[in-house]
Amino acid sequence: MVAADTNASAAPAADLPKSENRVWKKFRSHKSAMLGGILVVFFIGIALLAPILPIPDPAATDWGAVRKAPSAAHWMGTDEIGRDVLSRMIWGAQASLLAGVISVGIAVAVGVPLGILAGYFGGWTDAVISRCTEALLAAPFLILAIALAAFLGPSLTNAMIAIGISATPLFIRLTRGQVINIKVEDYVDSARAIGLPTRLILSRYILPNVLPPILVQATLTIATAIIAEASLSFLGLGQQPPAPSWGSMLNTAKNFLNQAPWMALWPGISIFLVVLGFNLLGDGLRDALDPREH
After folding, report:
1. Distance (Å, rounded) from C-alpha 117 to C-alpha 180?
2. pTM score
3. What pLDDT digit, counting tens, does each position of 224-278 carry?
4. Where are the chain's structural domains?
5. What are the angstrom distances between the C-alpha of 157 and each of 19, 149, 273?
């Protein structure tokens, strides 16, 4: 019996590398997902390298180069007070990506445990969590984020908190649905039958099986969070001047569309590309992690 149990427990470990290889092979064959991954890595790279890149200070003004068109001196032109647009674009990537990742991290950290509690225990626990989730879902995501950011006050930190709270219901609902399906599986019933504590059942059997869809949803939600951060900054509720942000750059550029269209062009393209990258990456992860596709 001991030998049989040892072999049974070793079997999943032996299959794990094969499963990982299948996932990677499926993801690698997904051309649009690879394109998305390249875009995401590119923007993350320039955001991380911003402090060491040979670019001007994003807050440095040059009154002799106000609203200058792209040139050898300023590859993306200058803004309304002579600041280098390329430098502000690179530093602005930090704010957008940071807002996307941290706000989604907040949503996952709060939403996943609540979703597990609601789905696994049911009863009044599920009723209370589900009613609160439905109340938050009654308000459109961006409207709720704007309201919370206005209540908390204009700053990048408060914007991330507002976006994170607004995105939390998505992860509660997703996690709850996954847990409801998983908790009736035979291996979970067997764990209960041998008297395994609830905390171990949740950590060993429930959580690992809900992580793949959560990972996909998190990747897709980062794209939504980046748009939300740009919207809040555009409205003056996110990153505050003179710190660069793509949203605040668009807000300023709207006043100079005829005289200096490049001021709006570059942040608009950047938002489009980074959001496209995360969406393509999320779609690829969803296909690669779907067991029905293997």
Report:
1. 10
2. 0.87
3. 999 999 999 999 999 988 899 999 999 999 989 888 999 999 999 999 999 999 9
4. 25-51+74-289
5. 39, 9, 24
